């Protein structure tokens, strides 16, 4: 997606969220290789410890979604983003400190490279397909988002 197109998409997503009373955002980053999706496992002593999820994290004040996607992908996996391919769904949830957060998932094309996890945040990664999803511990909303991604892999990059 061209940056100017994505900027329009982001404005629309933010307007919709604000209309619903949501001002806090998180991004999930979906990277595919050989038709398999990258998921990472949170360290045991963290919030949702031992659970698998998409790499990602909170959008900082003044940060664009695209910048957050690139930053979080690099910080959590050591991979660099080439481009955002598509918005791949959203869901709302509560955290320990925020009543409502909206998480947007983005399918990205990443530069080739090896995954290098952020110490203290994630302790394992896997490349999964629909068959390997069932055995992984995940929060219910994340499981649904990942299931949608891995069952729609045709046409996905990498």
Automatic annotation (TrEMBL):
<dbReference type="GO" id="GO:0035539">
    <property type="term" value="F:8-oxo-7,8-dihydrodeoxyguanosine triphosphate pyrophosphatase activity"/>
</dbReference>
<dbReference type="InterPro" id="IPR020476">
    <property type="entry name" value="Nudix_hydrolase"/>
</dbReference>
<keyword id="KW-0378">Hydrolase</keyword>
<dbReference type="InterPro" id="IPR015797">
    <property type="entry name" value="NUDIX_hydrolase-like_dom_sf"/>
</dbReference>
<dbReference type="InterPro" id="IPR020084">
    <property type="entry name" value="NUDIX_hydrolase_CS"/>
</dbReference>
<dbReference type="InterPro" id="IPR000086">
    <property type="entry name" value="NUDIX_hydrolase_dom"/>
</dbReference>
<comment type="similarity">
    <text>Belongs to the Nudix hydrolase family.</text>
</comment>
<dbReference type="Pfam" id="PF00293">
    <property type="entry name" value="NUDIX"/>
</dbReference>
<feature type="domain" description="Nudix hydrolase">
    <location>
        <begin position="22"/>
        <end position="150"/>
    </location>
</feature>
<protein>
    <submittedName>
        <fullName>8-oxo-dGTP diphosphatase</fullName>
        <ecNumber>3.6.1.55</ecNumber>
    </submittedName>
</protein>
């Amino acid at each position: 997606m061209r940056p100017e197109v994505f900027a329009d998409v982001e404005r629309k997503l933010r307007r919709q969220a604000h209309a619903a009373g949501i001002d806090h955002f998180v991004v999930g980053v979906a990277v595919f290789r050989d038709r398999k999706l990258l998921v990472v496992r949170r360290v045991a002593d963290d919030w949702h410890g031992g659970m698998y999820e998409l790499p990602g994290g909170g959008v900082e004040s003044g940060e664009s979604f695209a910048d957050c996607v690139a930053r979080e992908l690099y910080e959590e996996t050591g991979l660099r983003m080439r481009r955002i391919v598509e918005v791949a769904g959203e869901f709302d949830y509560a955290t320990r400190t925020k009543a409502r957060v909206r998480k947007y998932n983005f399918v990205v094309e990443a530069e080739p490279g090896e995954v290098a996890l952020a110490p203290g945040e994630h302790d394992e990664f896997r490349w999964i397909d629909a068959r390997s999803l069932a055995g992984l511990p995940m929060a219910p909303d994340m499981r649904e988002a990942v299931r949608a991604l891995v069952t729609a892999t045709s046409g996905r990059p990498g």
